[in-house]
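HUMAN: Would you supply a protein with fold tokens?

ASSISTANT:
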Amino acid sequence: MRGIVLSKRAAKKLDKLLNYLESEWSERVKINYVEKFDQIVNQLRTFPEIGQETELVKGLRRLVITKQTTIYYRYDNKYVKIAAIFDTRMDPMKIKKEIK
């Protein structure tokens, strides 16, 4: 089973998102998001190819967490490396900046 690695930028974005969900919605909404995120990340450990290949950057895949949030990642034999957590309401071309 592969390990999971979050880039510094992805970890920071996740932290901001969780703080936002808790402050603007509720603790329950935040917990539901964490559970969904964990479920999807655990699937990626075993089946990293489930995400859709993207044309933005070679080797980069994406997977929808919620209708507002998508993760972008790469994988190899040892790790799934989450490069970015992206708000789907933003310009998709900004993802290139997110993963640098």
Helices lie at 8-25, 27-46, 95-98. Strands lie at 3-6, 52-53, 61-66, 69-75, 79-87. The CA atoms of residues 73 and 82 lie 4 Å apart. The two ends are 27 Å apart (CA to CA).
